[in-house]
Amino acid sequence: MTRSLRITTVVDAARARIATARLAAAYGVPALERTRLTSALSAHLRQCLTKGGTWRLTLQTTAAPTDEGLLHVEVTPARGTGLATAQTQWRMTVRCPEAADPAGAAAVADDPTVLSEALLGADEDTALVLEKLAEQEDLVTFHREELHQTNQGVLALHAELDAAGRAQREAFAAERKARTEAESARRRLTFLADASAVLTASLNHHEIVRRLPDLLVPEYARSVDVWLFDDEDRHRPAPHPAAAVLAARTGRPQYAADHPGGLPGVDDQPPSALDPARPLLCIPLPTRRAPLGVLTLSPPGGRWDPDDAVMLIELTRRASIAIDNARRFEHNRDIAETLQRALLTNLPATPGLSLAARYLPATHGLNIGGDWYDAFTQPDGSLITVIGDVTGHGLHAAVMMSQLRTALRAYAVDGGSPGQLLTRLHTFLHHLQPDLYATAVIARFRPGDPTLTWAAAGHPPPVLRTPDGQVHTLDAKPGAMLGIPLRQKIADHTAPLAPGSTLALYTDGLVERRARGIDPGIERLADALGSFGPAELDADLEGAADGILTPLLSDSERDDDVCLLLCHLRA
Fold first, then answer.
1. Is 293 a residue whose pLDDT tops 90?
2. I want to staple 356 with a disulfide (CB 3.0 to 4.6 A). Which of 324, 509, 566, 567 is the partner?
3. At a CB cut-off of 8 Å and minimum separation 6, what does 131 contact?
4. pLDDT tens figures, 31-85
5. Which is nearest to 87 in space by CA: 144, 47, 58?
6. What pLDDT score was predicted for residue 280?
7. CA 39 to each of CA 15, 118, 563: distance values in angstroms, whole numbers, following the listed order
8. Angle 135-137-140 (CA atoms, 0-180°, nearest 5)?
9. Cα–Cα distance measured from residue 400 to residue 397, given in angstroms and rounded to the nearest whole number
10. How many other β-carbons are positioned within 10 Å of the β-carbon of residue 471?
11. Hey, is 217 helix, strand or coil?
12. Measured in Å, how far apart are the chain's first and last C-alpha atoms?
């Protein structure tokens, strides 16, 4: 459909505008689009009227009325007016979504009143749009107010979230700090427990002093110096910081540096003149009587953490206890060993019989004082050899050993066989110390008698080497241990004794091993004794004793005394 309108006057322009608006409404063009179309058309028509002349408005649709199409609106100068240029043409296209009756839609009355009313009605779209715009403006105002309130709520929510986040961060920081402090405390307690176990594992105070730097450097100290008062008395004294001397005199820890230490329980002092640039922590080694010495430390960094300082003071106290206990142990061990050696017999010289004895104190623990040997002659000229072991260790065992030795010699003056002597010794020990026991072996050699008489009470059996090199274990039924609450009569046993024979008496420290028992050790002793030739035993019985000890003790921890007594009947 195509329609043309001729425009010369304002009325023509109004009629054209109205016709365009009605036609657009008939074709279902939205109100907003119609308003834009009519507004643009009005603006262009005003320009055309200003220029004057005759203009033509062409309305054209490109599809049937029943189909959706396009509405083309075009304003061009009329022919013959001399205005036909590209700049004077105007064209606009809108979509037409609905069908309509184009003949009725575009009709406009010629009556001026009707035309005026129609002209006014042509602006209904504009009024509708303005009304819609007013409604939308109210809606926008409402939404703007709602948005403002929402923004205020969002800001308040952000403030609450920020406060909650800040509180959560502070809680996380506090929890992290508490976890760090707990981990540090656990680490210090673990170190203190492990270090205490290391220090108390040794009974040698020099070894304990040597272990302290290994424990503390480099985590808790850069350098460690241990000043023991007794050691300084035996060696050339060395210069010590004034803070260490003050700690020794007052018994309180001292901190010497050019800045306050702020360490709990520690007195601050000026820096040391020996090394002013190095801070020093001087901790006395306390005991129940007086300090043993002073432990001087320098920090691994600039200064110590107060909790680390408290831990170091506690470790020093434990180290002092360990050193004091080790010294007491060493003192008691030295006394027991001295007493033990003083009570051991000088072997007698007997024609035709060679004797060699060895005594080795234990090297681990206070296990000395229980093993003993003896050899003496009876009034009839026979030689009594004995070896024994008192249960228990230390000074008490050494004293009991000396009493048994003295009692045995006294009983032997009246004569008696080895079994009779052990029976009397059993009765003596039971009445003297009911809670103390002992084991022993007694062997008697008579001049010119080719028979060995022996008796045992709970002791490892003697080992006899015959002149042909054969070794026999004298394992006839022994008596029970001496001192047990049991009446017993210990029997005598005999064995042939030819010239060139060698009898070995020993204590369990020579042959017994915790992992293997005693029987393998006795077999090793028999093998060692059988490895010597008769000439070696005749010529050097002392060397044979050393040759037996060396292989048998090569795998021993020496946690018990060792006694060996060799009796060789010369050929």
1. yes
2. 566
3. none
4. 888 888 888 888 888 888 888 888 998 888 886 545 578 888 899 988 766 665 6
5. 47
6. 94
7. 14, 16, 133
8. 110
9. 5
10. 18
11. coil
12. 159
Using CA atoms in the order 386, 390, 395, 400, what is the torsion angle rounded to 10 degrees?
A: -70
Instruction: Report CA-CA distances (Å) from 557 to 181, 280, 328.
Output: 44, 41, 22
Q: CA 75, CA 306: separation in Å to the nearest integer?
A: 97
- Ramachandran angles phi, psi of 77, nearest 5°: -65, 145
| Side-chain half-sphere exposure of 473, counting CA atoms within 13 A | 16
* Residue recorded with tokens 């907003």: 32
Exposed (0-12), middle (13-18) or buried (19+): which is 365, by Cβ within 10 Å? middle
Residue 89: partners with Cβ closer than 8 Å, 6 or more residues away: 74, 75, 76
Six-digit token pair at 33?
């689009």
482, 440 Cβ separation under 8 angstroms: yes
CA-nearest of 439, 407, 442, 463 to 560 is 439
Cα torsion at 500, 358, 557, 199 (round to 10°)? 180
Burial category of 377 from C-beta neighbours within 10 Å (exposed 0-12, middle 13-18, buried 19 and up): middle
Tokens of 353: 């019989």
Whole-structure pTM value: 0.54
H or E element, residue 306: helix 306-343
User: Per-residue pLDDT averaged across 12-26, rounded?
Assistant: 85
Which residues have CB under 8 Å from 41's CB, separation 6+? 16, 17, 20, 57, 73, 75, 92
> Measuring CA to CA, how many Å separate 34 from each of 123, 125, 220?
10, 7, 90
Determine the 3-state secondary structure of 276 from DSSP. coil
DSSP 108-130: ----HHHHHHHHHHHTHHHHHHH
Per-residue pLDDT at 166 exceeds 60: yes
Contact 405, 391 (CB under 8 A): no
Nearest residue to 288 via CA among 255, 333, 243, 251: 251
Cα–Cα distance measured from residue 459 to residue 56, given in angstroms and rounded to the nearest whole number: 147
Q: Do the bridges between strand 438-445 and strand 55-61 make them parallel or antiparallel, or are there none, so unpaired?
A: unpaired
Q: What is the DSSP-derived secondary structure letter of residue 86?
A: G
Residue 283 vs residues 127, 164, 209, 224: alpha-carbon distances, Å = 100, 48, 14, 11
When pLDDT is cut at 50, 70 and 90, the band that residue 28 belongs to is confident
Distance of alpha carbon 123 from its chain centroid, rounded? 90
- Tokens 């603006």 sit on residue: 43
Contact indicator for 561, 359 with CB cutoff of 8 Å: yes
Q: How far is the C-alpha of 474 from the C-alpha of 461, rounded, in Å?
A: 6
Alpha-carbon distance 376 to 409, whole Å?
8
**3-state class (DSSP) for residue 566:** strand
